[in-house]
Amino acid sequence: MDKQIRRLGYALLALFVLLLATVSYVQVVAAARIADNPANAFRQLVAEYRVQRGRILARDLTTVLAFSKKGAGELKYGRHYPDGRRYSGITGYYSLLFGRGELEQSQNQFLSGNAAELLPQTLVDKILSRPVQGATVVTTIDPAIQKAACRAIASLPHGGAVVAIEPATGDVLAMCSNPAYDPSDISSQDVPQIRRAWRRLNADPGQPLVPRADAQLFPPGSTFKLVTAAAALENGYGPDSLWPNPASLTLPLTSHRLHNFGGEICSGGSHITLADALRQSCNVVFGGIGLKLGPDRMAEEARKFGFAADTASGDVPFDVPFREGVFPTPSAFVGQPASVAFSAIGQFDVSANPMQMALVASAIANDGVLLAPRLVTQIRDSQGQIVKTFEPAEYSRPLTAEHAHQLRDMMVAVVQSGTGYAAQIPGVTVAGKTGTAQHGGANEPPHAWFTAFAPAENPQVAVAVIVLDGGDLGSDATGGRVAAPIAKQVIEAALGISGGA
Amino acid sequence: MSHAAARPRARQGTTIALTILALVIGMGTYALTGLGKQGRVPANLALYGSLFAVLFAASLLVIRRFAPFADPAVFPTAAVLTGIGFAVIYRVRGDLAAEQFTWAAIGLAAFCLTLIVVRDHRQLDAYTYTIGLVGLALLFLPIVPGVGQVINGARLWVRIGSLQFQPSELGKVLIVVFLASYLNAKRELLRLATVKWGPFRLPQPKHLGPVLLAWGLSLVILFVEKDLGASLLFFAIFVVMLWVATARPAYLVIGALLFAAGAWFGYANLAHVQLRVDIWLHALEPANVNLFGYGQLAQGQFALATGGLVGSGLGLGIPYRIPFAWTDFIFAAIGEELGLLGTVAIILLYVTLVGRGLRAALACADGFGKLLAAGLTAAIGLQAFVIMGGVTRLIPLTGVTLPFVSYGGSSLISNFILLALLVRVSAGSARG
């Protein structure tokens, strides 16, 4: 009998080994797949909402963009956004039904307390049966500049967007879109309210859930001439290089002719300098520059500023979804050389958003070195200890320091005596560039652009503004008249100058 | 055994140390559950702690007095399972915790009483048929009109007055005792009266009677009581004991064939068997996860998967959303809050119990004792496997309790009686 008893032991042991393998499979190997079942959503939600989610703070460490506190419902913690509408493009939302957006999504591992860096603290909490707490995300946002930026675009009839960047670090100081939304509406625990708000936001043609500042694309118009000018400088044409200045440009292989804005002739004679063409924003001259440089050199320069080849790709790292500007791949110009002229003035298939154009300005401001935009600087655990730091990172060098200084001086002239005079600030040298971008039909009011940095000799802030469909001025709008005053207000806030108006 | 005289003192020290550890683990689990659930230690922690301490101490005294040579690990292993079960029941059904404690107290009393009454396991060998008949009666009591109750589709409960219990749990213990006695008496006959057929030595057709009878009885349990779990366990224990007694693998083969035939017949004719198999195969499909039957298995799987490696922490998951989390699905509740670490610990505790039980069987000198210990061990091991395998979806789910852990008086009391018999055999075997 003893032999059988031993064998019975082995048989029972085999069954239990099989059981050990099964629990390992269910609880570890296949756990994510099993737990991901839609029918388990409630369990996951309750688990997620049981953690006191971390806060999102401004760079001053005191302004709270998002926080969690205990609520009454079955879900333990609720998410709150004290100034939700102002910061929605940064925080995003945290919704029971519709997932997460922006930092709530990209920093979820930290905010929810699941990141590997938080493991020591989390383990201590678990062992002591203390509730696990999420980590705090510290952003680069400056509340004063953000407030000024949002106020400046708040009353635009067709909306707009602003981005302000610190050129030396890539820190995003402000990023505001109009229309915006209040994330509280879709982050509450009131299901019918969430569904109503979600339907309303998705029906809005302005797409508030897709911030205009960094996630939608528009034709950049003449602000793109900064990229064309940089390409010219990098390819051996100095600020004083002379370019033909006809009344209009005959384009190869087409019957189209390229005119200056309003059909005017730029002053200065039959040939004018690169610097003067930028100051007056001459389409005809820049179209000629584009044709002279050709699609390869234009595309190469645009890539260095972060422009992608199409809307699907792009490699500029950012903490929230960022759609880089687009400059088509050179092969797209084969058989239609005229398009290079339109691209050089920011039309045709070229597109951008304020974040992209602020990056262009910041590279010029930062001696030709482009830093990747940065929105998060630190992660702090629930005890306030820093567990992770994100350092500034260089993205590219679109132009040499010498060329950057030349372009800067050209941009200073734009504000001092050119199209961007409305951005002048007493006592501060502002470098800028206007843009008035045609889009849609001939009768559609243009998008007004302005991108700038200041002070020119020691840049503290780079700004880009878009005002959609001409703002108050409609078809009469230009970047100089509509967008430059907004950039001015943001620069004043960034430099701590109280606005005159 | 020549060295036996030196062992008793050391072993009792081990028993005491392990039982204290069991008490600390059980009450620690209870305290942490309260902390996680309500943010504070349960108010009655000291009360339950001291009550369990008194009960365990009394049991140790009885072991010391009436079974001094008992295996040192068997009782503490059951004690720690009981303590964890109490804490988890408090977690998922706080209202049942006091009752569970009462059942544990009665179970421990039954444990002591069994050890006191049964001074030598060979006493039981004298009442073979009495015990067998009582066991069978208990197994089939639920069929009797008027006393039988159908709960959750299975007729395995009995109600007498206000008292409601599941007699098959105790029936299971008595039938193991009966089989040990009966098979030990007939083993030579069953072993030697064979005909050669190919490589096998088959029992003579007239000796197949007991096997066919057991098979028939298990089918009755399946068809009339609709109790898949008890039917399966009853037949498996019988075949295993028959094989251990006779050393004839042919019985295993015949048993497997009969099981296959019974399973096929059941599957072909019983909707609830078909449903069980379908639930097993398709529990997690999106169309099914909210259906009755599928839902409980799916919730169990979700609980285990969400628990992951280390679990949500005691009191911090939502195991109360698993149907029957205090009985059949208590293993999934443990998996959610204690993770893989918790489930592996529970499995290893049963491995310990099985290992110690079979060790007692090996060490026992008489055939009856060997068969008894092996049968009792197989009963507890198979039952633990069947329910844990069912909850984890290793095998189709059949509703049986997780021994010592699940809520329920019948189960706890029967299992403590079973444990007492195992302790008795182990004590007897050491004495030689």
- Describe the sheet with the most strands of chain B: 3 strands, antiparallel
Shape of chain B: globular
User: How many angstroms separate the termini of chain A?
Assistant: 102 Å
Q: Could you tell me the mean pLDDT of chain B?
A: 87
Radius of gyration from the alpha-carbon trace of chain B, in angstroms = 22 Å
Mean pLDDT of chain A: 88
**Strand order, largest beta sheet of chain A:** 3-2-1-6-14-15
As residue ranges, the low-confidence spans of chain A are none
Could you give the count of β-strands of chain B?
Answer: 5
Q: Percent range for helical residues of chain B? A: 55-70%
Q: Outline the biggest β-sheet of chain A.
A: 6 strands, mixed
Identify low-pLDDT runs of chain B. Answer: 1-10
Helix/strand/pairing category of chain B:
mainly alpha
Sheet-strand content of chain A, in percent, reads 15-25%
Structural class based on helices, strands and sheet pairing of chain A: alpha+beta
- Enumerate how many helices of chain B there are, as a single number: 14
Task: Please tell me what the overall shape of chain A is.
Answer: elongated
Explain the overall architecture.
The complex is a heterodimer of chains A (about 500) and B (about 425). With about 500 residues, chain A is of the alpha+beta class. In chain A, about 40% of the residues lie in helices and about 15% in strands. In chain A, strands 3-2-1-6-14-15 form a six-stranded mixed β-sheet. Chain A starts with a helix and ends in a 6-residue tail after the last helix. Chain B has about 425 residues and is mainly α. Chain B has one domain. In chain B, about 70% of the residues lie in helices and about 5% in strands. In chain B, the strands form two sheets. Chain B has a three-stranded antiparallel β-sheet, with no helix packed on it. In chain B, strands 4-5 form a two-stranded antiparallel ribbon. In chain B, strand 1 and strand 2 form a beta hairpin. The N terminus of chain B is likely disordered. Chains A and B meet through helix 1, helix 2 and helix 3 of A and helix 1, helix 8, helix 11, helix 12 and helix 13 of B.
